[in-house]
């Protein structure tokens, strides 16, 4: 039996996240207060008692989810014994910190820089995303390629659930054609921009320098990265995949399948919510899933 620890990405946030950790763990309090200092504002106030609107700001959302996940993993202590780790989009940074490939401080700095860079890219060119349900991935890919606008597959969440990303006009055109092709739903998402698409190229360039200048160590267990879905332990390759992640799709379905092939039987989600548990159960029905 192998334990696969998985870390959620943007969208898992909720007001009050992390408050119980802060109130009941001295280690958690120390890490949260260090985060306030690094970020230059009290993110704990926004996490614990802010508004939904506060938490929807990319510059807040991404560090908040990262902090909740990595601090939760840290408080598990010696009971945190992963055979492999992975994170969905932003969650990849949490996974790398939990696997001791990236320090807590450096991870937070990178996540904060990532959020700012992505926000700037969103403001530069308005864009969006949509969830496509009930259509084969290959058909979604074909229709995306046929649209005379920027539209690409962004999140392979489960077989039959693929999120597309691109220009506002392109997403509108794609949704119409995908519904005509038999999609059960083509649901526009309330997001700030076209994440994991070519429209994030300015953010990728900006973040690449920060990643290149950040120490990355060999992880204590294999990390399955979004851009390739393959198990990785080489720090050079980890950096390369982290940089590629902003414009590459999240290959979550493929990651879970590869983890199962490599012996994963128990998937433990570390962080707010239970979204990944639901996705994993749809990808592999025999999986044992739980959350911390």
Number of domains: 2
Topology, number of strands: 10
Annotated CATH topology of the largest domain? Malonyl-Coenzyme A Acyl Carrier Protein, domain 2
Main sheet overview? 6 strands, mixed
Low-confidence runs: none
Principal-axes shape call: globular
Structure classification: alpha/beta
What does this entry look like structurally?
It is a single chain. The protein is α/β, with parallel strands linked by helices and 292 residues long. The protein folds into two domains: 2-123 and 198-291, Malonyl-Coenzyme A Acyl Carrier Protein, domain 2; 127-188, Alpha-Beta Plaits, CATH 3.30.70.250. Helices cover 49% and strands 17% of the residues. Strand 4 and strand 5 (161-167) form a beta hairpin. The longest helix is centred in the middle third of the chain and has 21 residues, at 104-124.
Task: Please give a handful of descriptors for the protein shown.
292 residues, alpha/beta, Malonyl-Coenzyme A Acyl Carrier Protein, domain 2, Alpha-Beta Plaits, 2 domains, six-stranded mixed beta sheet, four-stranded antiparallel beta sheet, 13 helices
What is this entry, summarized?
The chain is an alpha/beta fold.
Map the helices and strands.
Blueprint: E1 2-7, H1 19-24, H2 26-39, H3 43-49, H4 52-56, H5 58-76, E2 84-87, H6 91-98, H7 104-124, E3 127-133, H8 137-146, E4 151-158, E5 161-167, H9 168-180, E6 185-188, H10 201-212, E7 223-224, E8 231-232, H11 235-244, H12 252-261, E9 264-269, H13 275-283, E10 288-291
Parallel strand pairs: 1-2, 1-9, 2-7, 9-10
Antiparallel strand pairs: 3-5, 3-6, 4-5, 7-8
